[in-house]
């Protein structure tokens, strides 16, 4: 694995970004857009995946990063669960469900693999540049 210097380089974050865009698109549709509770919850859960990956990357230690990745993975599970509700209520089609569910599963797998990698490489406590240059 090459050194990652920015959270935007993390594949799981990139997938989470795609998922979030898809969730926002799906929740704009008529039936879904009127269910403010579910719409808000699934949007917040999808954004939470991205946010936890980036926050973890910016944290100071590898154990903190792993904890944030765990939270991101949990949010991916939350999105999958909410997609079932969305499908059961006919807010989304089976095709839309399948696409979004697959993307949520993908980000979950990517996050799990990243956690496993970090747990097997405990020697690197920081994953970004050790020294940053600041101009005042």
**How far apart are the first and last residues' alpha carbons, in Å?**
34 Å
Amount of helix: over 70%
The chain-level mean pLDDT equals 90
Using the coordinates shown, work out and report the CATH topology.
de novo design (two linked rop proteins)
Q: Which H/E pattern describes the elements?
A: HHHHH
The largest pleated sheet is described as: none
Number of helices: 5
CATH C-level class: Mainly Alpha
CATH superfamily: 23S rRNA-intervening sequence
How many domain regions?
Answer: 1
Count of β-strands: 0
| Percentage of residues in strands | under 5%
Could you tell me the radius of gyration in angstroms?
A: 17 Å
Question: How does the helix and strand content classify structurally?
Answer: mainly alpha
Relevant terms:
5 helices; 136 residues; disordered C terminus
């Amino acid at each position: 694995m090459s050194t990652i210097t920015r959270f935007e380089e993390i594949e799981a974050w990139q997938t989470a970004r795609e998922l979030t865009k898809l969730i926002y698109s799906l929740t704009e549709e008529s039936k879904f857009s009127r269910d403010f509770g579910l719409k808000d919850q699934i949007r917040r859960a999808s954004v939470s995946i991205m946010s936890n990956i980036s926050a973890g990357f910016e944290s100071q230690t590898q154990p903190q990063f792993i904890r944030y990745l765990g939270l991101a993975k949990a949010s991916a599970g939350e999105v999958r669960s909410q997609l079932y509700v969305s499908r059961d209520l006919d807010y989304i089609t089976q095709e839309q469900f399948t696409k979004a569910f697959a993307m949520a599963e993908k980000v979950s797998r990517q996050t799990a693999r990243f956690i496993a990698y970090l747990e097997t490489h405990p020697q690197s406590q920081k994953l970004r540049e050790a020294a940053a240059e600041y101009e005042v």
